[in-house]
Amino acid sequence: MFFDEMPVAPADAILGLTAAFKADPRATKANLGVGVFMDETGRTPILDVVKRAERMLLDEETSKTYLPIAGLPEFGEAVRRFVLGDAFCDDGAHGLATAQSLGGTGALQLGAQLLRRFRPGATVWLPTPTWGNHRAIFSGAGLAVRDYPYYATDLRRVDPEALAEALATIPAGDVVLLHACCHNPTGADLDAAIWARVAATAAQAGWLPFFDFAYQGFGDGAEADRAGLLSVLRAVPEALVASSFSKNMGLYSERVGALTLVAGSAAAAEAGLSQLRRVVREIASNAQRHGGSIALKVLADPVLRADWLRELEAMRTRIVSSRAALVDGLRARVPDHDFSYLLRQKGMFSYCGLNDAQVAWLREQKAVYMVKGGRINVAGLLPGQLPYVCDSIAAALAQ
Ligand SMILES: Cc1ncc(COP(=O)(O)O)c(C=O)c1O
Description:
It is a single chain. The protein is an alpha/beta fold. It has 2 domains: 3-44 and 314-397, Alpha-Beta Complex (Aspartate Aminotransferase, domain 1); 66-300, Type I PLP-dependent aspartate aminotransferase-like (Major domain) (Aspartate Aminotransferase, domain 2, 3-Layer(aba) Sandwich), CATH 3.40.640.10. It contains 15 helices and 13 strands. The strands form 4 sheets. A 7-stranded mixed beta sheet has the order 2-10-9-8-7-3-4, sandwiched between helices. Strand 3 (123-128), helix 6 and strand 4 form a beta-alpha-beta unit. Helix 2 runs antiparallel to helix 12 (302-333). The mean pLDDT is 95. The chain binds pyridoxal-5'-phosphate. Pyridoxal-5'-phosphate is lined by residues 35, 103-105, 131, 179, 184, 212, 214, 244, 246, 252, 257.
């Protein structure tokens, strides 16, 4: 028999946490484990510009016929201009091509399939720690996966020496996954000086950078967040960039993302795109219309675009102020503890500094849920919950 020989797969660690939170009968509880942006009322809203774009599409669309395999060329162009910036796209030296994908996950998957076909012997190097799905995606595509040191727990930040040393020894032809900004799960990003070292190392060692850019706009701002990525792209001939509108346009369930190839020349980009089309054809046959049309409308309509950038900035500001309020609350309760590392972190996620035993204690004793390793979503922290969460973390630190 086929199915009855299958073991039951373990539940997804983060989704499982939310299920446990929902089932928790305690009246006072907080879920800091979720992976979505929440406003101050705990909602993950549909952006106003998305609603407006959808209304326009409702009136304008005349057919649901199939799109081109890799999505509309206008979508690819608009997305990569947002992701890489006009200056990089216009200098004409890089050979760019973009395919629409099923979210950032789909973009990583497209890249993984391309690597499996054209560089099957390559090892994909992942930072420690990283988003759990990275390993599953690349090893699921049959690629060897190894780790490089990223976050130094004792320093509560990236150790630039350890990082540079590790990246320098990765062989030419291998692939290095880099979080472009808002590192998930730690929130620990690279500063300009470390990015410059990464860029120089990539150029010298000859490995292929594969960027995961899932949180553009949530760190220092939509333009500032691409600075590190660009410093690497200017130093190397080739790279892959997986991007997503799940977070910055709030299109989570619409599954809109893109894989951009930085191929070195127009001819190589066209060849790369032709191969990507074969991959998409096998996985999904062709691009998904609704989500892609929303993103394109918002990017291409100047009024919608300006309003979107304001809404995106408001989400970023909420994250920054939630982080600051958490630090104030913790400092008031545990004055001798240094929480400055929390303020240095970027994006929704933070390694809050608790160990796994303290994380388990918080969940059991206080009904405060966070991901193993101490990852919290600062955008999931609601103002009304803040005093309770700070009291609870302070109590956990005293354990
Ligand atoms: C680092 C990272 N990459 C990629 C993704 C994929 O996002 P999506 O497929 O929802 O666009 C996520 C989502 O949580 C993420 O945290």
